[in-house]
C-alpha cells in the first residue's frame, strides 16, 4: 500500500515530484516505467493516465497524472504544518505560486521542444528552430528572479522545486546559463541549499543531459 510513483529519472516533471516528496519527507514506492518497451501504453497504464505520460501517482483509489496536480495534491494531503509555506494556504500567496507553476509548464514545453525532436526524431533542424522559445521563457524567468530571491517571494516554494527540475536539465544539456545571471545565481543557491538535490534531481538531470549532448554531437550540432 502507500503511494506509488510511476516515473523515469531523466524526466523533469518526474523529478519535480521527487523533489517535492523529499522536501516534505513523504515516502513512496518508485515504479520505473520502461518507455522503450511501451510500458506507458499498456491498458493498465492508460487506465491510470490516458495521456500516457509520466509521472503518475496512485494513492489508494486515486490515480493521477501531471506533475503539477501530483505535487499540489502531495502538499494539500501530506505536508506537515511546519512546511505549509512551500504551498501557502493564503489565497494571494498561493495565487503567486500557482502562476509560477503554470509558467513552469510553459518552460517545460519549450525544453521538450528542443529535446524531443533531437532525441526521438534525430531532427537537429527542428530542435534548433525551437530554441528561441527556450530563450524567451528563460528571459521571463530572469525577470521573475530579479524581483525576489525565490520564484514566488522570499522563501522556497514548490514553484522553485518544479522549475529547478527544468532549469537544471537545460544546464545539463549545455545551454549557456550566463545569459541569465539571476537564474544562474538561483540555481547555484538551490543546489547548495537542498540536501536532497543530488538524489532527487541532480542524477536524473545529468542522465538527460548526457543523452541530449551525445545525440547533438552525433548530428554535428553544438
Ligand atoms: N504535463 C505533464 C508532462 C509529462 C510528460 O510530457 N512526460 C514525458 C516524459 S518527460 C512523457 O511521459 N512522455 C511520453 C509520452 O508522451 O508518451 C507533467 O507535468 O506531468
From TrEMBL:
The keyword Membrane does not apply. SUPFAM superfamilies: GST C-terminal domain-like, Thioredoxin-like. Residues 1-82 form the GST N-terminal domain. GO terms for molecular function: glutathione transferase activity. The keyword Transferase applies. Keywords: Transferase. GO terms for biological process: glutathione metabolic process. Residues 90-219 form the GST C-terminal domain. Homodimer. This is Glutathione S-transferase 1. It comes from Amphibalanus amphitrite.
Amino acid at each position: 500500500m502507500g503511494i506509488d510513483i510511476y516515473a523515469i529519472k531523466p524526466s523533469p516533471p518526474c523529478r519535480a515530484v521527487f523533489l517535492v516528496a523529499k522536501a516534505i519527507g513523504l515516502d513512496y514506492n518508485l515504479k520505473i516505467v520502461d518507455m522503450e518497451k511501451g510500458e506507458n501504453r499498456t491498458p493498465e497504464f492508460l487506465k491510470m493516465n490516458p495521456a500516457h505520460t509520466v509521472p503518475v501517482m496512485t494513492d489508494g483509489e486515486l490515480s493521477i497524472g501531471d506533475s503539477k496536480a501530483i505535487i499540489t495534491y502531495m502538499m494539500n494531503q501530506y505536508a506537515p504544518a511546519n512546511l505549509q509555506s512551500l504551498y501557502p494556504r493564503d489565497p494571494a500567496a498561493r495565487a503567486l505560486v500557482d502562476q509560477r507553476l503554470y509558467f513552469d509548464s510553459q518552460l517545460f514545453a519549450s525544453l521538450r521542444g528542443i529535446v524531443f525532436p533531437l532525441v526521438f526524431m534525430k531532427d537537429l533542424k527542428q530542435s534548433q528552430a525551437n530554441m528561441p522559445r527556450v530563450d524567451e521563457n528563460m528571459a521571463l524567468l530572469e525577470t521573475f528572479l530579479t524581483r525576489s530571491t525565490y520564484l514566488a517571494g522570499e522563501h522556497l516554494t514548490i514553484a522553485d522545486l518544479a522549475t529547478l527540475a527544468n532549469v537544471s536539465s537545460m544546464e545539463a544539456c549545455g545551454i549557456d546559463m550566463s545569459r541569465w545571471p539571476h537564474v544562474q545565481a538561483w540555481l547555484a543557491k538551490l543546489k547548495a541549499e537542498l540536501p536532497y538535490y543530488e538524489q532527487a534531481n541532480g542524477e536524473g538531470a545529468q542522465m538527460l543531459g548526457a543523452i541530449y549532448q551525445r545525440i547533438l554531437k552525433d548530428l554535428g550540432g553544438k
